[in-house]
Amino acid sequence: MKQADHSASGGMLWTVLSLFPEMFDSVLGASLFGKARDKGLVEVELINFRDFALGRHKVVDDAPFGGGTGMLLKAEPLALALDNVRASDSDVWVVLLSPQGYLLDQQRIRRLSGHKHVALVCGRYEGVDHRVCSMVDEEISIGDYVLSGGEAAAWVVMDAVSRLLPGVVGTQESVVKESFCSDNLLEHPQYTRPRVFRGQQVPEVLLSGNHAVIEHWARRQSILRTARRRPDLLEQAELTKEESDWLAEQE
Ligand code: ADE
């Protein structure tokens, strides 16, 4: 996908639809994301979709047809809120956060970073009326566990996407060289000063100053760590004959 030119238009716009928009105040004001907002690289618009519920009581949930425990978010308030978002920008990419969604990974994050405007719909209660799914472009789960709502998942998506935008992270190289970017491997162990901490030494090779040897060591550590912790990732990694032999030696 073509990378959007976020610099020309005052940054990437996130629209968050939630029943608890105040949950985002501190988290989006701090750290890297806060700085990116200050620099105008990302913008956030928070919408409480209860404001779109009809009737005096502004009801947003109801019992599921066919029975079952818990309450579902009704389609109408979300539909009206999304109509509004799409009316202001027909190019907006709408994502529903839900445990039933496609699993989030770095590739999906990279694809999202190609949009200039992403709207995140945060579910609550036991789920949402299925007809909401036809109003969104993508459904995403951040992992095989159930959160009490989509808000924490929305932070995860915003954080991971925003740090890919030019200018948000200091050096673009650190974004490219990390886990999951170039080759589907976990990162090797890293150390900073002091050389000995509570009896644990920094591996001698890292003090050698020999970059070729260090790179070789780092690659081997990456591969062995990925094999131990995430064999599912290793299946997609491209290894040389020598690297495959390292794995065989470990068996
Ligand atoms: N809402 C509840 N659980 C979730 C999950 N695992 N991912 C995304 N949204 C969710």
Contiguous low-pLDDT stretches (5 residues minimum) are: none
Following the backbone from N to C, one meets helices and strands in this order, namely EHHEEEHEHEEHHEEHHH
The residue-averaged pLDDT reads: 92
Which ligands occur here? adenine
CATH topology tier name of the largest domain: Alpha/beta knot
Count of domain modules: 2
Strand order of the largest sheet: 2-1-6-5-7
CATH class of the largest domain: Alpha Beta
| Contiguous helical run count | 9
Characterization of the model:
It is elongated and about 70 Å long. The protein is α/β, with parallel strands linked by helices. The longest helix has 19 residues, at 211-229. The strands form three sheets. A five-stranded parallel beta sheet has the order 2-1-6-5-7, sandwiched between helices. It has helices spanning 25-29, 31-38, 75-88, 106-112, 151-162, 172-176, 211-229, 231-234, 241-250, and strands at 12-18, 42-48, 61-62, 72-73, 93-103, 117-122, 138-141, 196-197, 200-201. Adenine binds next to strand 5.
